[in-house]
Write a structure and sequence with these properties.
Serine Threonine Protein Phosphatase 5, Tetratricopeptide repeat, disordered C terminus, 17 helices, globular, mainly alpha, single chain
Length: 350
């Protein structure tokens, strides 16, 4: 039913790149092609090779370089009067904005990208942009608003037999079910995503699906060994492709698994590792979640209650400002778990 996964963001002379190409290889090939296109005055090719450069920088956690690259890609596309290429550049910019925690900007850029994709007759960039909008809402915890859009995009991807997009939609829906406590449904969806990704040779999608399965195996079944094995398998794919963000989230999840198993000192080490990785790539959501895990781990090892209360109160304020509703609820649960419900509030953090 599904063909081999492909990467539509690798365009022009870079279509030979695989969805599993190392990001350092993508960056090198894209930069070389971009330079040649600029020297030849080929604005369209510059826009499309510049898109690959922007995406490689973003996924490597190089925020400033990614910002410069997607904007340059947009300018080149505009000079070439290539509406579809303009849409792809805006999609990249919107995805970067979401990664940086700038959710209003992400929604604006992704909305523009979807409109231009439709205007330019590129259904793929339209679909990716709508998916970006859905993911933005999901990350913020607005499940009611984006659940239907996720389902719609899943149906479209299945109809086209597009493995990579089907895997993305399944994982997003699974995560919402997991966060709502429907572990069995979430597990089945993550499992299907993993199977499709493996069959389509989509290492990135497979790594994220394995991470989701590990989470549920840990929280639902209490099977620490199996969860850690799944995360180790996922980490191999992350390292092979140099997926900095996915690797950081893998380390953070490993911390979660160890914390649930009562292995607090080990969990603290993983949270500290993930925190450093997220800070290096300026990823505020991952940074906040790592701080949360770190605060809980330290509290379980005897940290002063006042220090823990202050850290959780500060985190509550940070997440409130970013607009991460689900993560803010996680802080409230941590305060209750540690008996600190009345020790820190959003107001106290301001």
């Amino acid at each position: 039913m599904y063909g081999k996964a492909f990467a539509p963001e690798y365009q022009g002379a870079l279509t030979t790149l695989s969805v599993n190409s190392s990001l350092t290889d993508v960056l090198a090939a894209g930069a070389e092609q971009l330079k040649a296109a600029e020297q030849a005055g080929e604005h369209g090719e510059a826009a499309r090779s510049g898109l690959a450069v922007a995406e490689a920088h973003r996924r490597l956690g190089q925020v400033r370089e990614a910002e410069d690259a997607w904007k340059a890609s947009y300018r080149a596309a505009r000079d070439a009067d290539d509406v579809a290429a303009m849409a792809w550049a805006l999609w990249s910019g919107g995805t970067l904005a979401r990664q940086r925690g700038a959710f209003p900007l992400a929604r604006r850029l992704l909305g523009l990208a979807a409109d231009l994709g439709e205007h330019g007759g590129d259904i793929v960039v339209r679909g990716y942009s709508l998916a970006g909008l859905a993911e933005t809402g999901r990350i913020q915890g607005d499940y009611e608003a984006v659940g239907r859009l996720h389902e719609q995009l899943l149906a479209e991807a299945r109809r086209r037999g597009e493995a990579r997009h089907t895997v993305w939609a399944l994982e997003g829906i699974a995560q919402m079910h997991r966060n709502s406590g429907a572990y069995d449904t979430a597990f089945a969806l993550f499992e299907e995503a993993a199977e499709i990704a493996a069959g389509a040779d989509d290492r990135r999608g497979h790594a994220w699906a394995l991470r989701g399965l590990a989470d549920i195996v840990s929280v639902r079944d209490g099977d620490t060994g199996r969860a850690l094995a799944l995360l180790s398998e996922a980490e191999e794919g992350c390292r092979a492709m140099k997926l900095s963000g996915a690797l950081a989230y893998n380390h953070k999840m490993r911390g979660n698994v160890l914390y649930r198993a009562g292995r607090y000192a080990e969990a603290q080490g993983l949270y500290e590792l993930a925190l450093g990785e997220f800070r290096a790539m300026k990823e505020p959501r991952g940074e906040a979640l790592s701080r949360l895990g770190l605060a809980k781990s330290r509290a379980r090892q005897g940290q002063d209650r006042a220090e823990t209360a202050a850290e959780l109160a500060d985190l509550a304020g940070v997440l409130e400002r970013i607009g991460l509703r689900h993560a803010r609820e996680m802080v409230a649960r941590a305060q209750a778990e540690l008996g600190l419900e009345n020790a820190g509030t959003v107001e106290a953090a301001r």
